[in-house]
């Protein structure tokens, strides 16, 4: 499997990285699954395009887990239309100062709204909202675990076994699992007995292994002028684009 780091609206880098993976795949004759670590949206120029791109890849077998930014965007969508389609004037949405949206506005949410607008009108389809709500927190393939942030293995196991999604987080039934998309303390967690736990969330200059190589941090800050990185759990290769 190829695990891909935080995209944050950087559609160009996402497309080029997946193209690079595809040409690599042709050369290696192995068709490894893609898995995105979440934070598809916010800060970058084309969150809408990134969601479309990842949805298309998902139709062909790619997986994605939810990041804190995806959860924040979903929370706003629920607030504005209860899970249905959103059609509203951009300024009305941008002026919504509800406390539950404060974090999102402070972390690039306005760029996401901009990407869903044409002129002064914003349109977010119900199928986009449903895609966000259905994002799971954890994906596991063999001994590789993927979640947006570093978290206790017991929590990862719970979220995986119960197929916990963003919907469960927002309806309050899984709030105790929020560490899975917000955790940052790599050293505090018990290490896996085998396998690798791959995550994004905390930016690193180069992909960084911790805990006797059982924890990998893959967010190489593409939205801040860094690069977008992918890691292959079978071959342990890295690929990246600037
Ligand atoms: Mn991020």
Structure description:
There is one protein chain. The protein has 242 residues and is α/β, with parallel strands linked by helices. It has two domains: 173 residues, Metallo-dependent phosphatases (Purple Acid Phosphatase, chain A, domain 2, 4-Layer Sandwich); 58 residues, no CATH class. Helix content is 36%, strand content 19%. The chain contains ten helices and 13 strands. The strands form three sheets. It has a five-stranded mixed beta sheet, covered by helices on one side. The two termini are 21 Å apart. The mean pLDDT is 95. The structure holds manganese (II) ion (MN). Manganese (II) ion binds next to loops.
Task: Describe the secondary-structure layout.
Elements: E1 2-4, H1 11-28, E2 34-36, H2 47-59, E3 63-64, H3 68-81, E4 86-89, H4 90-94, H5 102-106, H6 109-115, E5 117-118, E6 121-124, H7 126-133, E7 138-141, E8 144-147, H8 153-161, H9 166-170, H10 179-182, E9 196-199, E10 208-210, E11 215-217, E12 228-232, E13 238-241
Parallel strand pairs: 1-2, 2-3, 8-9, 9-11
Antiparallel strand pairs: 1-12, 4-6, 5-6, 7-8, 10-11, 12-13
